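Human: I wish I could look at a protein chain and see how it folds. This is the protein in question:
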Amino acid sequence: MGETTVTTLEGQEQAAPQPVAEEKAGKDYLRRLRAPRRPRFWFEILLIAVSYWTYSLIRNAVPEQKHEALRNADWIWQTEHHLGIAVEQSVNHAVDSLTWLIIGMNYYYATLHFVVTLAVLVWLYRSHPGRYAATRLALFATTAVALVGYYFFPLAPPRLMNGGHFVDTVLVHQTWGSMASGDLKHMSNQYAAMPSMHIGWSLWCGLTIFALASAPWARILGILYPTTTLIVIVATANHFWLDAVGGMLCLTFGFLVARLWYGSLPYALPRLVPGTRGGATAAGESLSRGLRPVRIAGHRQRPPDTAGDGRTPPWRLSGAAAGIRPPAPPPDPGRRP
């Protein structure tokens, strides 16, 4: 009877730690999942391609609610008038009067939005692999939440407003600066202007370059890029000022998601991770550099007074302590052997 009781108690003692072990295993798995790791090239290429294809599919699948989009555009325009920032029309007409400038802005709007973003992703992958995944997550979360805005707040760009007297610079100057103008207008949702992902992506690029680049000229370009993009989207009549504010809010959400997942802002994470070039040997190289003698004014620096294990090195010990025997005395010629 006693043996049965003991067996039962032993069984309980063995069964009790199992939920704790499972909980610990789950936490360890989540910790490994959230830890920065080395990005894989082909996986990243596939992920970016599929993500952009999905984004374009969903964005263009949003119903083009023309009447609601035009009504929202009128509301945005009136709101900006009340705020005293409704200068988009003046900027649009002023820049349109300079043909060379507005054509350059049309091509800027069409190309750099994708080229610069991909270039920054490649630079992060090569030079900051430890920060790549977190920074990429901020960009993806920014783009994902923008789809919510496209669905619930359709908005016509200024160039499509009724009686807005804006100039559609792509249509007038026969350039392909916008997929929502000319022959390409049927390939893109024309009423997905809020928020502006030209601002969301360019500001992501600018902040990343400014925070991580070491060259001063690169950091200056990081500041100028989203600023120039803001001027371009207004001058080409593709967005209102408030569309840019929507893009900034989406980017804030993206960085918040990355902060919650990784426990830190992307730029505060370590630049290298184990498995990347230089990541595993950085500590060893620093240690070996610290043990090398340093030459000062043509002389070799004396080795330290203590060894690495805390013991006194041989060159600081007396002969007996160091294990060195003194030389034998010379023989006495007057003494018989």
Q: What stands out?
A: DSSP finds twelve helices and two strands in the chain. The longest strand covers residues 295-296. The two ends are 90 Å apart (CA to CA).
